[in-house]
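Final report, closing paragraph on structural work. Over the funding period we assembled a curated collection of sequence-structure pairs, and we close with a single example.
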Amino acid sequence: MRYARLAAPRSLEIVEVADPSPAPGQVVVEIEACGVGGSDRQAWELGSVFTPAWFGHEWTGRVVALGAGVENRFEGERVVAGTSAPCGHCRACRKGRTDNCETVLRQIVGLDALSAEHGGFATRTVADARRLVPVHDAISFPNAALIEPAAVAAHAVARSGLNIGDVVVVLGSGTVGLLTSELARIGGAAHVVSVDTSAARNELACDLGADAAFSTVSDGLRSWIDDHTGGLGADIVFNCVDVADTLSAGISLVCSGGTIVAVGVGNRIDNLSITSLLAREADFRVSLGYNSSDIDRVQALMRQDRLRVRPLIQRDVPSSLEDLAQVFEIGARHAIGPPKVLIKPNG
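Its predicted structure, as stored:
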């Protein structure tokens, strides 16, 4: 089998090793597709990653081997990398905070004992059988590769406390931002407005259900929000972009008593104005990962074609394992098209 490994800043190597054998509790998955995410690009730029299994964590494939103790129902199953149910015995679970289960978080970031020594940029990988989620037959492998980022977006929407009729602003129209816009609309938002510097992404956001899109946090955006809220401001602002000062700009858009949600690992808060939050008595919330319920919810919506993910996938781009470095090199292309590139290690 082959897998991609970070060798140095902006440098990859393709490593060839023997096919993996699953340890007890593990399975071997043949990778059909793996999404290239923002954290993968950051790791490539730096030449290092938080955990090896995190580099290429948006993967889907088919189970081809079972370790001891794994149920036979997994044999040949189409699966996606997800997470197990809350463990019930860690400190967070014992305090009733199952959404913050320490076991689940360790699985997501690749710190648990059964994590692989590499991520999904590979022809095959091993995984803890407990974190695998079967993929419904109605969902193609390319679409299944977006289940994980969709679950991240679903978790953010759930943490926001969205109410029916809310006015929502989404800063950033990358994969998670676009999915957050869609899910906010599905969740009952009366109006959703997206903000991104890419005209193509703004057009896509509107195609997927946003009411309007703006290139910056501008007077035009503020006027739009005032017109749709009677001058009160947005009920919820999601920040889904790793750009300095975006969070502070978002605070200026939220209503008194509203909510700011920082989504994912890329948010910068160095210049966050606590005074602005205090003046509005606004809630500041963070949303990092997802849980098994988020995975189930987005799969159900994708099966019904209510959550549309196919338009987010770039087509006619290099997609083999050997093309991964080129995909990172030409990453700026994403600004003029859909945000998600899929690597298909097995062709």
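The longest strand covers residues 26-36. Residues 159-287 form a domain with the Rossmann fold fold (CATH 3.40.50.720). We thank the funder for supporting this effort.
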